[in-house]
Input
Amino acid sequence: MLQLGTKDLAKYPFLAETGQYLRDKGFNLEQLGHPDWKPIVEKAYGRIVVAATGQIYGSDIEKLENLDSEILSFVTAIILLKSTGISTLIKRFSLAEARRAEKYLEQDLRSKDERKLDFPLKIIQDLFSVKVVIQGDDFVIKVTDYLKRSVHFHEREWKLINRRVEKGSVFLTSHETVRLIRRELDAYINSKIHSATTLSIPETFKERVADLVALAQKFSATVIISTEYPPCIKHAIEVLDRGENLPHSGRFMLATYLLAKGQTIDQIAPLFKNAPDYNERVTRYQIEHIAGTSGKRTKYSCPSCDKLKSENLCFEIPECNGIINPVQFGKKRVTNA
Amino acid sequence: MLEKNVRFVEDAFKEYYFNNFELIHVPPRTSEREFGYQKFNAGMTRHLGIKNDKELHLLLMTQIPSDVYCSNAYYSFPNLPMSEKDWKEADLIFDIDVKDLRLDCRKEHSCLKCSTCQNIRVQQSSCAKCGSDKFETISLTCQNCIIESKKQVKKLVEILTEDFGIKNEEIQIYFSGNEGFHIHVTNTEYQNMDSRERADLADYIMFNGIIPETLGMSKQNSSKLSLPDKEEKGWRGKVAKEIFGSKSKRPKIIQEILTGGYSFFQARLEEMRQTIGVRIDPKVTMDVHRIFRLGGSINSKSGLSKVLCKDLESFDPFLDACLLDDKKIEVLANCPLSFKLKNQKYGPYFSETISIPKYAAVYMICKGIADVA
Output
C-alpha cells in the first residue's frame, strides 16, 4: 500500500486509498446532497463536460487551492456518471482523467527529488506491473513489457524498430513511459467507475444528471460509407485477376474483408477462379469456414493494417487516413455535436 | 507420390528411425505440447499428446510418418481441439528459408516439373511435351545457399543476444532438413508474448517499418540531421555502418541525404531492408499455435534430417544431415542438374536407370526427380 498525502490523492483520485481518505474525513453521500455542497456537484459536472469535449480537466496541481474539493469532485463525478448509465460519457471521462493523471505522473517522474520519484514508479509497478528503471535521462523497461503495450499504438514511432533496444530493454523518455500505460490507466479508471456502487442519488444531483444525458445525445454520430475498396483489397483482386498467385494471408484478408462488407459466399468464391491452384469445392469450404458457417463456427475478422504491413500486403495511400483496419476505409464520422 | 516410391521411402524412413532412436527425442515439457504428423499422400493428423520418447518411437514405427511436428506452444490440454487447449505460452521460433533470400544461384540449381505431364525442364517456358504452363519448381539447394542462409542465422543470433538479451544457451539452431534453418528460443521471458507482439518483434528483426526520425531526420525539418555513429548499439549502429562505410565518406553521404530529403532517405532505408534486415519468415514467428518440424525427424521434401547444428560454421547439411544408409538402389532418374551429397557428386541424369546409394535415391525421389526403377 502506498503512503499518500492529500495532494497525491488530488492528482490520482482513482487510487484505492481515496476510499480510506473519505472515511477518515467522515464524508458520505447524504452530506453531498446538502445544498452547501452544490459547488462540488458543479465542479464534478464541469469535470465531466470538459472530459466529454475531449479536453483535460485542470492539470496544474501546484495552483490548486482546495485539494479536498479536487478529490470530492472526482467521486461526485463518478456518482453522476453512474446515474446517467451512459457508457460513452464514462469512456470519455475515464480517458480524460487518465490523461490528466498522465501529466502528473510525467511531472513526478521528472522530479529531481528522489522521494517524489519513488511514488510514480511505484504506481506504475503496483497498478500495471511494469518495472521502470531510471538510467540517467532514460526510463528503461523490458522489451516484453514494452511490446505488450506498444502493439496497441498505430503510430509507426511506437514500433519496436523505432526504439533504442539493448540487452532486452527499451529506452524511453518520461513522456513515452507514461503514454505507454495510458490505455491501462484508462481501463483502470473505467473499471473503478463501473465497480463503484451508487444506491440512490440525492435530489440535488438529478438536474445535472439530466443535463449530462442531453449532452451525451449530441455525441451520437452519423457514419458515411464510401463504396471504394481500400488499396490492399484492390491489389489482391488485381493479383487474382491477372491469374497470379495470391498468398494464403492475402486470400484470407480478401475473404474476411468482403464478408465484413456483407458479401455472400456465392459472390466471393468466383473472385478466386483465376488463382493458379483454384478448386471450387476447396475455395467454398474455406470461405464458409472463415465466415463461421462451417467448421468450428468461429467467424474470422479482417486482419489489422499492422498485420497486413508485416505480411507485405499493405499498399497504404493518403486516403487510408490513419485507419487501423481495412474495413474502416472510406468511413467518415460526422458528429452531431 | 507414386505408390512404389512411397513404399520405398517409407521403408527407408522406418529403418532410419529404428536405427537412430538416440537422435529423436521429445522436447522438454512434453506433456504440454501438441504433436502432429503427416503420411505420404495423406493429410495432417494433429492434436496429439505424446508423453515420452517411448511413445514417440512407437508412433514412428507404427505410422511411419513422412513428417513429424511438435508445437512450440505449451497447453494445459494439448490433445483437445484448438479452442479448448488452454494456451499457456510458446517458445520463440524462427524460420530462415533459402527461397526467401532470392539468391542468383537459385536459377542455376532449379528445374521445373510440369504439373500436367510431370515432364522436367530447365527453361521457364511452356512444357515442350504437353504445352501446359503450370509447373512446380524443384530446387536442389547448393553450398552457396547454405552459406548465405548461415549469414542470416548469424545476424539473427546477434540481434537475439545483443538487442534482446537472450543467452546463447537458450538458442538452438537446427538445419531444417531441406532449404534453411530453424531457430528455437526456449526458457525466456519472451515465451508469454502473443501473436501481435511477436509480429512486431519479427518486424524489428527484419528491419521493417523504420522511420527516418529514428535515425535523426525529421519530416518537418529535413535539413537538420543527426545521423547515428557506427559505434552505437542496435539498428542505429548497423545503419550507420551500412550507409557510411568508411569514415572518410561520411560528409559526402550526409550531403547526399540532405539533398535528397526525407522521402529519399525513407526510400534508402526501405532498400536497406534487403541488405541488413534478417530474412526470417514472419508468419512462422508470429504463429503461436504452429506445429513445427520435430528435431531429429526426416524432412520428406528432401530425405535429409532436421538436426541440431552444434557448430554452425563447420556444419555441412549435405554431410551432417544426410543420415540414411548407402545401400545401392536402382532408380529411374530424370534430373537435368547435378548435386552433391556426402561429398559425392550426382547427376545430371536424363531419364536413365542408375544405381546410387539409398540416401541419394531418397533425396531424388523426395525432390520428385526420380522414381524407383
